[in-house]
Write a structure and sequence with these properties.
Layout (H helix, E strand, L loop, with lengths): L1 H10 L11 H15 L4 E11 L4 E12 L2 E6 L4 E5 L3 E6 L4 E6 L21 E11 L3 E10 L6 E9 L5 E8 L4 E10 L20 E4 L2
Parallel strand pairs: 6-12
Antiparallel strand pairs: 1-2, 1-11, 2-3, 3-4, 4-5, 5-6, 7-8, 8-9, 9-10, 10-11
Length: 217
């Protein structure tokens, strides 16, 4: 689910330890790392898009994410999906069918399914390149940085990040997938002072009547 992977880009701690990094890009990404690690919680509203010109696909959906350490809740109301994780278990609720599937996080099969794991995904397998400055509508002056994978492990050919010059926060990102799709996320609003209790990240079946539960644990 590349949606979660892209969300992680906005929240990730970019610890690019490889010697093959662009010096300026690494300096900026290190600042992003320090800034994001200083937050106890992060809440963000975003717009997620997917395009494929060859297949005439143009989709755009809104969503939100709340993050606290390895715990997260991702809400995609336009497609009726809400994902909860307390860092150990993951609940995937689908409004269409009123169904929730439950599994251990380790059984997810891919790091792309876990926003918290994306925090360190760049420590292995990505090269960075500083492109320059760019003014974005609604975001102002940003740094444009490209990331290139060293292998096909991450199923992307390139990631483009736009990072605010004044606050060292990621404003938007583009992901060019090996599947021919271009995925994008634009942050609309971010809050780093929300008080989120640990039980917020646990799915409560009592909140849903006639719920179908599929437990893979």
């Amino acid at each position: 689910m590349k949606t979660l992977f892209l969300l992680g880009l906005f929240l990730a701690s970019f610890l690019l330890a490889s010697a093959q990094q662009d010096i300026k890009a690494k300096q900026i990404l290190d600042e992003v790392s320090a800034k994001t690690r200083s937050f106890n919680t992060i809440s963000a509203d975003f717009v997620f898009s997917m395009e494929n010109e060859e297949m005439d696909i143009y989709e755009k959906n809104s969503g939100s994410i709340q993050l606290k350490g390895q715990k997260y809740v991702v809400d995609l109301p336009d497609v009726g999906v809400k994902v909860y994780s307390d860092g150990e278990t993951i609940w995937n609720y689908m409004a269409d069918g009123n169904q929730v599937t439950i599994s251990y996080l380790d059984d997810g099969g891919s790091e792309l399914m876990d926003p918290s794991s994306v925090f360190t995904i760049y420590e292995r397998g990505f090269r960075s390149k500083y492109i320059g400055e760019k003014n974005l509508a609604g975001s102002g002056a940003t740094h444009e940085i490209e990331l290139y994978p060293d292998s096909d492990e991450h199923e992307v050919t390139k990631i483009v990040l736009f990072i605010g010059k004044t606050d060292s926060l990621i404003k938007s990102a583009l992901l060019l997938g090996t599947d021919g799709n271009t995925y994008g996320i634009e942050i609309k609003k971010m809050n780093t002072s929300a008080n989120l209790p640990d039980n917020y990240f646990i799915f409560n079946p009592a909140d849903f009547s006639d719920l179908e539960i599929i437990d893979f644990r």
